[in-house]
Backbone:
């Protein structure tokens, strides 16, 4: 997924710096990704660590992490995935509220794809409620639907708005490529919780933090993924069909430093690694001053290609570069 703040392209840099700091191996360490998003970093440590703790407040992120991190034993999904692939579309909630044919005026998906999303989503829910599939299978199929629906969405990568005309990728028919996950022996914990609340209830060795950097709220930018994931009934609000969502304090200039320090103070982890960048709401010095209160501080940086909503925009190469900070804290015991 083309995702705001995704660390997929930075994962090797982050992983090498973490291993370097903690002295190499992580196989005996509990690794926590507290703002996991699509799980790019947690997934990179899954097969090497003693245990992963993954969390995100957004439900669609929880679904993805419950599959990619929580699932670690193999099961047979092939026949059911083929059954989902063969379903005929129905005029359900997504079609009626987020496709032109449904009469809403919104065009997040083609009519065909909207109907197929509805049919697939309802079938997954029916299987689960009738105990035909277990939780592991449920989140696997749900993740598969989310990722493949996102691939045919008629947006400039985020769901804050839809495009006036169907772009090429949105004209393609929805197909279900499996959301395959890595197998390993360890059990992992996956949460859908407020980070500052959860931090008081967990402990481990390595805490990786990738909170929102700026004022963009993930609840609004990815509202439709939450709607597909939850598939609940509500009245979509306004031109873009927003659902109610909780605004993160990490996206608020006047609140972020206070909520961040509260998180660090309550973190029961030896090593803390914070991804941030030079365009964030907190300055480099703000972050440094907070972290230095709680132990030994260090910083490494790398140049990075900033997130673009669409590949055709912002062709100025220099304007697309940003500096990614990895703040490092070895916390006092």
Residues:
């Amino acid at each position: 997924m083309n995702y705001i703040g995704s660390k997929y392209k930075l994962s090797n840099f982050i992983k090498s710096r973490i291993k370097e700091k903690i002295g190499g191996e992580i196989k005996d360490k509990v690794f926590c990704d507290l703002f996991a998003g699509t799980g790019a970093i947690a997934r990179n440590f899954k097969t090497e660590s003693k245990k992963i703790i993954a969390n995100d407040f957004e439900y669609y992120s929880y679904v993805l992490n419950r599959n990619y991190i929580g699932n670690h034993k193999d099961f047979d999904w092939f026949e059911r995935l083929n059954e989902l692939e063969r379903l005929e579309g129905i005029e359900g909630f997504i079609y009626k509220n987020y496709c032109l044919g449904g009469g809403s005026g919104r065009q997040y998906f083609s009519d065909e794809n909207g109907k197929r999303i509805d049919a697939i989503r309802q079938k997954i829910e029916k299987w689960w409620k009738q105990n035909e599939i277990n939780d592991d299978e449920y989140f696997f199929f749900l993740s598969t639907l989310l990722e493949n629906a996102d691939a045919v969405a008629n947006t400039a990568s985020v769901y804050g708005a839809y495009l006036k005309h169907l772009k090429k990728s949105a004209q393609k028919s929805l197909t279900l490529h499996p959301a395959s996950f890595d197998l390993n022996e360890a059990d992992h914990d996956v949460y859908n919780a407020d980070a500052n609340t959860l931090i008081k209830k967990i402990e481990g060795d390595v805490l990786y933090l990738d909170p929102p950097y700026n004022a963009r709220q993930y609840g609004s930018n990815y509202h439709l993924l939450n709607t597909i994931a939850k598939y609940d009934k509500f009245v979509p609000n306004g031109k873009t069909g927003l659902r109610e969502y909780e605004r993160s304090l990490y996206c608020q200039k006047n609140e972020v430093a206070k909520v961040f320090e509260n998180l660090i103070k309550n973190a029961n982890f030896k090593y803390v690694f914070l991804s941030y960048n030079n365009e964030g709401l907190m300055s480099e010095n703000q972050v440094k001053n907070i972290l230095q209160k709680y132990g030994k501080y260090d910083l490494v940086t790398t140049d990075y290609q900033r997130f673009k909503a669409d590949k055709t925009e912002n062709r100025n190469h220099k304007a697309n570069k940003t500096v990614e900070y990895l703040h490092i804290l070895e916390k006092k015991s």
About this structure: Confidence is low (pLDDT under 50) at residues 311-319. The longest strand covers residues 295-305. The two ends are 39 Å apart (CA to CA).
